Amino acid sequence: MTIRVVVADDHDLLREGLVAALDRAAGIETVGAASSGDACVDLVERLRPDVVVMDLRMPGGDGIAATRRIMAGAADPPAVVVLTTFDDDELVFGSLRAGASAFILKSADTAELVRAIRAVHVGDVVLAPAVTRRVVRSALEGVTATRAELPALTEREHDVLVLIAAGLSNERISARLHISVPTVKTHVRSLFHKTGATTRVQLVIEAFRAGLAR
Prior knowledge:
The chain is an alpha/beta fold.
C-alpha cells in the first residue's frame, strides 16, 4: 500500500528536498506540497492524503492552525507529522493539542522521517525519543496545579497506557504484555474513548498529567 503524503514548509529548498527524499522511499508518494498553512489545508481537502508533514512556522496560517483545521475538517483526517526545531515548547505543545501525531527534528535524517510517516500511517506513533518527552514535560509545567485524575481504567488499560507513554509501539506492547496486537488496539481504542484523547500523543500527555510517566 502506498502512503500518500502532503508536505508543508515555507522554505523552498527544504520543501523540495523533502519531496525528493520521500519520493525515493519505498511505499511513499508525495502527492502535494504547500508553502503555507492555508495552502496545506486546501491541498488536504482536495487530495485526501494519508499523512501530512507539517512545518510549524509558516505564513498564511501556521502549522498549529493548519493542523487544527485538518483534524476538524474530515471524519478520517490524515495523521500529522510535525517538523520542528524545538526552540519554542509552547508552540510544540499547541500542535500536540491540535492533534499532531509525531515530531521530527529538522536536523533528522530521511530514514527517521520515513519511519515516522509509516508509524503514524498505521496509528502507531512511537514517542520514545527523549526530546519528545522533554517537550511534553516542559509544556505541562504549570498547566495543572494538581495531578490530573484519569477515568476508571482496567488493569490492562493502565498497563497499555504506561507502555504507550514509554514510547512502545503496539507490536512491542503486545510482546511485553503477552497479548495479541488486535487486543492491544482494542485497549488503545478504549483509552481514546475514556480519556477523550484523539491521538497517541494526547494519551502520553494524559499519562504525564496523571503521574504515570516521567
